[in-house]
Amino acid sequence: MNRLSMNQMTVRSLTVPQLLDACQRHGVPAVGLWRDPVQTNGVTKTAHQVRESGLQVTSLCRGGFLTNPANQPEALADNRRAIDEAAELGAQSLVLVVGGLFDRDLPAARTRVADAVAQLAPYAAERDVILALEPMHPVFCADRGVLSTLKQALDMVEAIGSPAVRVVVDTVHVWWDPEVEVQIARAGERIALYQVCDWITPLPADVLAGRGIPGQGHIDFGVLGECVAAAGYSGFAEVEVFHEEVWAADPEEVFARVIRAHRELVLPGLERHLSG
Amino acid sequence: MNRLSMNQMTVRSLTVPQLLDACQRHGVPAVGLWRDPVQTNGVTKTAHQVRESGLQVTSLCRGGFLTNPANQPEALADNRRAIDEAAELGAQSLVLVVGGLFDRDLPAARTRVADAVAQLAPYAAERDVILALEPMHPVFCADRGVLSTLKQALDMVEAIGSPAVRVVVDTVHVWWDPEVEVQIARAGERIALYQVCDWITPLPADVLAGRGIPGQGHIDFGVLGECVAAAGYSGFAEVEVFHEEVWAADPEEVFARVIRAHRELVLPGLERHLSG
């Protein structure tokens, strides 16, 4: 389990202290945190508890939502606060969900994202926080994330040219992409974070909750893990599940299922490269 | 309305004769037909009624479903029957929805599609039927269509190298793609059909029924129409809507709404190139 990180949303009924305790008891060495529950618990208090626990924080979720032309200053200010929080928590990266459309001009929305991330990059770099751009599955293009492919995210990263701006490879968002293997190889050390969950069918009524535990769906975690490892990624696989059945289950059982999926499906991909 | 084609699914409560009659009464010069209702009406009878009506048939929907490794011979045989039907109806193209995953090996499923389409191409060419590969929105990759982008479809078309194999540009499937403009330009005369409907939010529980009348959603039909026209496409805009509210409405009202959307949103894009 040395490369498993438990994202807070996977066991979202737990408070921050309960989550840290459960990770320690189950031997999970890292967590991905979310801003709302961290703020409820207190950022400084959470930072202290995390240090006490010895756990690593692979991500803070999430900044972004940079596409609304009517509130760019407020969005930038909120992202600076998120960067501050990530720095205080010692999070390896701040995940950016860039935001959806506010009219029908998709290229303009994408340009707003690039401009805003470029403005945030120096602030993040000064605080040693990685801004991890998350290309999102195209099903979310209209209402959540206009950044739709890894290629597009890497083009943006290269144009911004800051080492503080990198990408998330989240299996559920990229698995369908005919160019995913090529683009993961291209990403190389710019992969800030490898997130895993599975694409399930039939999709639930709320497509946002269509992300299962690896093994519940259609994704080949062996191939994607091998690609990520071959690109040089040696970090954690952060399990971020959005699924009503998982959310309704006993968190102790969810930990056990996630640990088993990590061992049987996720880790073999990540380690195939090392043994190959 | 000289470039409007009404796809049968948009007013699916109508029988084939009712559909042909409604098109004539509303001055709509073309239809897109579906195999099931055509078979119910009789293929030969439908072909006769279509010729009597003077309407053009922009497409027959649909062939494809070529990814199941357990029934390739049956799938190929059914596609040959669909080609025969398209030829008898005088349909300009047979739309291919290629099929989803049957295991977790996505590259293998895509290879099966390419192999099957290559096998069908000579049969279609002999009968003057265009096989129109439909790249589908990635939300359908697992369960309906592993062909996910226009680039991927054009790569396949070029590899097969038959003039009988071309592509559909359907706005709802391609609008999110950061490369859509480049790939439409690349497609050129290989655009067999331009289908239009809108991406709506919130998505309905059945994502398949998330395709509205142009104007109901997020797509910029001006830009996409202009791209298609600039690529040399001079054919019809076939309106194919899957939407519970539209299906429940009076077909006469649906005709009126579609005609208005065509005139106000779709046609101006297609004609901007000509006047520009």
From TrEMBL, chains A, B:
The keyword Isomerase applies. SUPFAM superfamilies: Xylose isomerase-like. InterPro entries: IolE/XylAMocC-like, Xyl_isomerase-like_sf, Xyl_isomerase-like_TIM-brl. GO terms for molecular function: isomerase activity. Keywords: Isomerase. It comes from the Bacteria. Pfam families: AP_endonuc_2. Residues 20-261 form the Xylose isomerase-like TIM barrel domain. The keyword Isomerase applies. This is Sugar phosphate isomerase/epimerase. It comes from Crossiella cryophila. The lineage of its organism: Bacteria, Bacillati, Actinomycetota, Actinomycetes, Pseudonocardiales.
